[in-house]
Amino acid sequence: MSFPPLPSQGLTPAGIQISEDMKNFYVYILCSKRNGTLYTGVTSDLIKRVYEHKNDLVEGFTKKYNIHRLVWYEIHESAESAITREKKIKKWKRAWKLKLIEQNNPDWVDLYENICS
Is residue 5 very low, low, confident or very high in pLDDT (cuts 50, 70, 90)? Predict the structure, then answer.
């Protein structure tokens, strides 16, 4: 898999060192199981947000359909670009979302542990 390290690990996807005061935003896709129900979201704290989904602390769609597996994410430097990307992905055909996931995560591995370490 070729996912970029999270900023807590000190590098952007381009390999540029980041400072503590830089804030990043994330677009992410969760699933219930391989080829299962998908959820696309946006956040400024990916670890916290996925934890909330995994532990059913978020009322709504992900809790109702047991969507807990982080299978894809992308880092953005601004909230505006992350929100724009999220809205675009939400309008995509399901097949396009599956292709996006499988390009970097063909086994649909839960990436949560990777982003926490």
Answer: low
**CB contact set of 57 (below 8 Å; sequence gap of 6+):** 51
The continuous run of DSSP H or E covering 76 comes out as: strand 69-76
Domain that holds residue 82: 21-116
DSSP string, 8-74: GGTB-TT--B--TT---EEEEEEESSTTS-EEEEEES-HHHHHHHHHTT-S-SHHHHTT--EEEEEE
Query: What DSSP element (H or E) covers 43?
Result: strand 38-43
Q: How many CB atoms lie within 10 A of CB 82?
A: 22
Is 35 within the bounds of a domain? yes
Whether this prediction's pTM lies above 0.90 is answered by no
Do the domain assignments include residue 14?
no
Q: Average pLDDT of 9-23?
A: 50
Give the pLDDT confidence score for residue 1 in this predicted structure: 47
In this predicted structure, the answer to whether residue 8 has a pLDDT above a threshold of 90 is: no
